[in-house]
Every structure is written in structure tokens, then in C-alpha cells.
Amino acid sequence: MNSSRPRPILGIVGAGQLARMMVQAAVPLNIDVRVLAKTSADSAALIAPHVEIGDPADENAIVSFGEKCDFVTLDHELVNLVGLEKLLANKVKVQPTPKTLQFAKNKLYQRTSFQAAGFPVPSFSKIDTLADFVEFGDRHGWPLAAKAITGGYDGRGVWIIGDTEAAEKLLAETKEAGINLYVEEHVEIEKELAVLVVRRPSGELQTYPIIETRQEDGICHEAIAPARISQAIEENARKIGVDVAEFTEAGGIIAIELFLKADGIILINEVATRPHNSGHLTIDGTITSQFENHLRGVMDWPLGSTTMTSKFALMINILGSSEADPSDRLPLNHSSDTAIHLYGKVARAGRKLGHITAVGDSPETIYQSAQKLINHLV
Ligand code: ADP
Known about the structure:
9-stranded antiparallel β-sheet, binds adenosine-5'-diphosphate
């Protein structure tokens, strides 16, 4: 007699490093995990036990991949929504749902709906003409931040604009490229924070310790948890996170990026309805990683503990340079308070090729350990 129960089948649409780390979390949970990859060289396609080749932006590819799954989740937002809707109609459990995903796909929709719901967001406006642009700048002060409404990531799609001339140039360039813009006030940022919340469709949710991030040119370089902020700010950030997760009906991880101003005011920058770069430190720094909890949330399983396993955890991204491939420089011997995670991606300048983490009792010790390791790798 065969008494084994069928394994739940979970499909991940897209096969970047987030999908790769979801696959790594799925194996010990005995989930039959599959990825829809654009190419067999994609980061998650290199390690997933079952790979289907197809374009996440293609409705048919999503439907034929997802039909064979019990659950479907996403590596990134650039996916075909009609395909996801069809899967939902077909009783496949898709998380995040297209409704939730819409907040991450369209920044203007996100700003508008969050503002209407009373969440703190920077002043913003849709713009169609140079006159709209200049009027906003004159009212709120220059510089201002112009953003692509859809499709931006890692700072591509964010422009800090200082005057009318720069605005005119940007409008001409983006019009030519078919990019629609909105503008918002340029925020004087004291610290960038991220609050990660994991939520089950049936309602249970948990928050991770607040994470502090450092960006350069719109790319996340490092993240440290817990953020070095007052208890009042921590509680406020956590409350915003929980309220946003409920408002957007998140399924799995939702990451809410925040701007903290010098006067203690918090504004929402943006949300990602999936695991997030700032949360990579949860693999080595908390009891249940964001990837495992994402899968638990997506499948409506009981959530794992988000408590930290040491006082502080630090993550530094390994960004590609033209000279060095970190895979060729892997130190086989490094201290036990550090860990290396490579994504199997071809090195290219500025590309996220992996990350390292360090855990310990103080920010000073973890920065020291991390720096020693990173010096070997890049
Ligand atoms: P992406 O979606 O490409 O990650 P974001 O909207 O998160 O873009 O912006 C990337 C970075 O640009 C932010 O982390 C922040 O450092 C900076 N930035 C974005 N919006 C503003 C703003 N309104 N004022 C000041 N800096 C901003």
C-alpha cells in the first residue's frame, strides 16, 4: 500500500534570485517546487528540480505552467495579469492575487489609493505636460523626484530633477521611450527603513524586526536589523506595515519601504508584494527566513517565527564589477558568523550577483566580519 500523500505543487513565475531562494526554502518543506523561467540559465532554473521555459509576460505561458500547480507565486511583478486571473478562475491558488499585485505594478495607483486610505505618502501628482511638472516644482520646491508609473526597479525609473530645463529634457526622453511619469516631492531622508510583513490569506500575520537599508544610486547596498531607531518610530513603522498588509490583502511577504525624516515622520516609499532584498538577512538572522514564510503565507500554512537568532544581522549585496567574478574567489574558509549566498548569475557591472551576511552582538563586530569576507569576494 502506498500511504504517502501527494506533495503540494507550488509554481513560481519567474526565475531570478528571489525564486532561487524560494526553491531553497521549499525543499526542506517537501514541496514539489517548479519554476517558469525565461531561459535555462536563469538563477532559479539552475537549481529548481522542475523547470519550464516560457515568458512570465506571456498569458499562455503562465496558464499552461500554472494549470499543473496547486499554488502559484511570483519572482517579480512583470507578469501577465490575465494569465493569473485565468488560473484563479481555474481554482489554482495564486498569491499575491492580481488585486494585491496591482499596488506593486503601478506606483501612481499605489500612491493614490494609499493616500485615499490615510497612509502617509510624499506629496505627488500625475503629470501630462511640462506645465504640470513646473507647477508641481514651484509649489513643492525643487528638486523633485520624477518616477516611471510602471516597470521601474533598482532605481531605473527614478529621476531627481532640479529645474525646468531638466524636466523638459526628461519629458522628451521618456515620451520617446513610451514611459509615463508622475512626480513627487524630494524627501530629505534621514534613514531608509523596510518593514516586512508575512500574511496568510486567512488573515494571520507576523512582522519581522524593522530593517534599515542603505541605497546608492537607487540600488540597495546593505541592510541591517534591527534598525537603530527609537521604540516609538519602530512601533509606528510596524503599525504602518501591518495596516498596509491588511489594506492590500497581501498573501505571503509584503515589503513596505519607508522614508524616515529627521523630525521622526515616516512616509511610505513603495511596496513589493513578494520577498525583498532588504529581507535576505532573515535567512541567517531569523528563525524563519522571509522565503520560507513567503511559501507558508502563499499556501496558507501556519507562519514561522520571525524572531532574530542573534542581536544584529547585516547583509551586503555582492554587486558585479567588470573585473571580478565572485564565484572564482570563493573563500572556502570563513568565520562562522558569516555566510555567502551566490545566485549563479553571469557577472556584469552593477548586477546583483549574491549577498553575504554577518550576525553578531553589535553593529561594529558584524561590519568587521562582513568587510573581511567581502574583501575576498570583490
Ligand atoms: P525602485 O522601484 O526602482 O526601487 P524607488 O522608488 O524605491 O525605486 O526609489 C529608489 C531610491 O531612490 C529610493 O530608495 C531613495 O533612495 C530614492 N528616492 C526615491 N523617491 C525619492 C523621493 N521622493 N525623495 C528622495 N529620494 C527618493
